[in-house]
Structure formats: structure tokens, C-alpha cells
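Hi F.,

I've been meaning to write this up properly since the lab meeting, where we talked about keeping a consistent format for the predictions we share between groups. The idea is simple: the sequence comes first, exactly as it goes in, then the C-alpha cells exactly as they come out, then a line or two of notes. No screenshots and no reformatting. I'm using this chain as the first example so we have something concrete to point to.
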Amino acid sequence: MHPLAFLLFPFALLFDGITRLRNFLYDLGIFKSYKSQIPSILVGNLRVGGTGKTPMVEYLIRMLKEEQAIATLSRGYGRKSKGFIQAKEGTNSQEIGDEPFQIFQKFQNEIRVFVGEDRSKACQRIERSSIQPDLLILDDAFQHRAFQAHFSILLSTWSHPFYEDYLLPMGRLRESRAGAKRADVVIVTKCPAGLTSSEKEAAIHHVRKYSSRQMPVLFSTIDYGLPQAMGEAVPFSSKVILFSGIANSEALKHYCDRNFDVLDFVEFGDHHEYDEEDLDKLRRLGANYSSDDFVFLCTEKDGVKVKNLLPNGFLGEIPIFVLPIQVMFSTEDEQKLKKLIQQKVLEDSASA
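Output, unedited:
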């Protein structure tokens, strides 16, 4: 927290009062929540951005898609359209948002991808559709109290846990730490490799100060795959100019510094919409390294937007590569998560 952030305390106090009142009215049932007829899993956070929601959604899809017909639903942050939309052939990131488009590109016909600002109304549209999914996964809907999921996953990063953060605008929390009580499981994301039992127990202790004493707390890491050419297959070079437009690039930068020769790094804002001016900036930067055999490297999230401008996957004569990312659990925590989903989503829904 910035040393002068305490000056914003009165505004954070006001924000806290508003969010607490809203949650209280939902808890009392004065504000109504819609519970889907379709078994649903919600993935969200208390902190603004950067907790790894989309990789977690992708992890759940990979884990469950062989046995369940899956659909995803999100707001479609940053899209140029409005209303309820189903992704189909020819859909682009401007229509549905970069993260839903990334999921759609990755899984294609294996799942259905929907976006809608009002998750409750969107869910009802899905329920009325001709082919209903077996499971609905919602991305970033923890504060969307008008929708009640069957199972809620709360994400919190290891380096910036919610229990050490403060409410907006002092900190980055969307609501008070006590919001963790609504979760069915807390997953600590982006953990360093080799966490000790005592480190995990300390984190669990802090989480349970704000949730229940029995709250399951699991730990996940990020695993990066081999860089993939955005366009035609070309050789990869370990010399890279890295660029990204994500909420928290610390882990990405650290990984690339350890595994590649990073000539330069350009950081854009989260959900950045790339344009020709940005591409010119990168081209000019690349000209400084014309004597080096390098490539441009970005995240999958950035790649789906850049490809709209550069369908061949080249910036000038330099190829662009994307760095795949996925969530990893220990065998023990993976089994715990599967068991929780089986018990609280699939079995409970089947018996309802």
C-alpha cells in the first residue's frame, strides 16, 4: 500500500458501507438472487484483477469437459458490443471480450462460450436454449450477487493475498475481506514452487480469520508452456522483446527473465486494446535490436487481440510468439477440488 493511501481512508470507509449494505440486503433476501437450473461453478476474487481467473476457468474446463457438456458465461469485459451473445465461427475479441475469445479459440466446439452483462438474465437465456449444457462456469462473478451459483471458488494470489489488502480506493479490494465467507473454497494462486507445510498453514490461518474455520484452502502454481508462433510455423529465438497488457505481469516477467534473453519489455494496461500506434511503437523498439535474431513474445490474452491486427502473426518481418499458461495443483489438492465439485455441484444438483 502506498504510504499516503491512508488519506483515502474516508472514501474506503464509504465504499465499505455501501458494499456491506448491499450484501446485507442480499443475505436477508430483500434483494433477490437467481439460482440457475443448470449446475454452476463461479470463479471470482475480492481483489481487482490479476488473480488468474481465466487460467482457472480453463483448468476446470480441461478437468471436466470429458464427462460434462460445459458452457462458460462472463461479462465480456472490454468488448465493443452489448447484451447476450454466444460465440460462433467468425466471432472476434471485440464482440465478446479478449478472455472469452481466448477460451473460445482454445476449446472451439468442445464447449459453448456466452457473454452477458446481467448474468442472471443470460443464464435464463441459456436455460431456454435448445441444447442445455450440463455445467455452467462463470468467470468473474463473485460480486454479482443477483446470481447464486451452486459452488463458488474464490481466488487470491500468494504475493498479494486478500487478507493483507484494503478496500478501494486505499487498496485493491472490491469488498471487505469478510466476503470470503461466501466462498465454498479459497484457492491461493500463483504460488512459488516448493511451498513448505508451515508456509501453507500460515496462509490457511490468515484466510480462515475472514472465512469459516472449516474453509477448504488449496494452493496452485502457474506453469508456462513452450512459446507458440502466432502465425505460420517459424523457429523460436531465445532472444525476445516481451510485451503484455495484463493486470499483474510480475510472474510473467520473472519467468521470462529466467528462461529467455529478454532484450526489452513493454507493459501496457490491463485489457489493453492494441492499435496501429502500439504496433509502431513495438516496431521502432525492434529496430534498436536489428542486429539480433529475436522474436516478439506476449501472453495468450494479448495474442488474441494482436492477431486481429496482424493475422499473419508477424510484426514487420519479426514473428510474434505467445506464451501458453495453465494452472497446476499438487495431486492432493487436485483430488480435493474434484471431490468438492463432485459433492457440491454434480451430486447435489442431480439429487435436487
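Notes:
The first helix runs from residue 9 to 28.
Residues 198 and 204 are 10 Å apart (CA to CA).

If this format works for you, I'll send the rest the same way.

G.
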